[in-house]
Amino acid sequence: MRIISGEFKGRRLTAPKKLPVRPTTDMAKEALFNIINNTYYFDDISVLDLFSGTGNISYEFASRGTQDITAVDENFGCIKFINETSDVFEMSINTVKSDVYKFLEQNNKTYDVIFADPPYDFTLEQFSKIPELVFNQNLLAENGVLIVEHSKYTKLDTLEYFNYSKIYGGNCFSFFSKKDDA
Asked: Which fold has domain 44-176?
């Protein structure tokens, strides 16, 4: 995997093979960040990276200037790798080793961007718990967005707060936010 833009553009990162991860492809990541770039100033936002795995998405935000990043994963090896990598690059990524659902239930901070990359084999019920907890706990800042990465074969368009999705290869990003009442 590589960092595609920002201060650390072009840097390649090699995660240990034993980590239970499926990093977002460079093509999909580049498309995703083009969308985010049209909405936010990276140095002004707070980011929550759920099911963070290798930290691929967190590094991309940090490379583009985001200082307030929290990466959550329940795997100790993933958290250790993110901590080691962010130390090497002097990135301000706060890691939390936790079950994502428990973290969402107990957290009270708000974020501009919440990115979730759960296992692709999740059931619709498991996927639906993510936006349910994010919105019930009011974890999104005003004009914030929840982005859930999933397989293009998984359809999340029936879930509450769903806005739209974009497909890139086998990856799909579904965007969730509160709709304007106006």
From this structure: Rossmann fold (3.40.50)
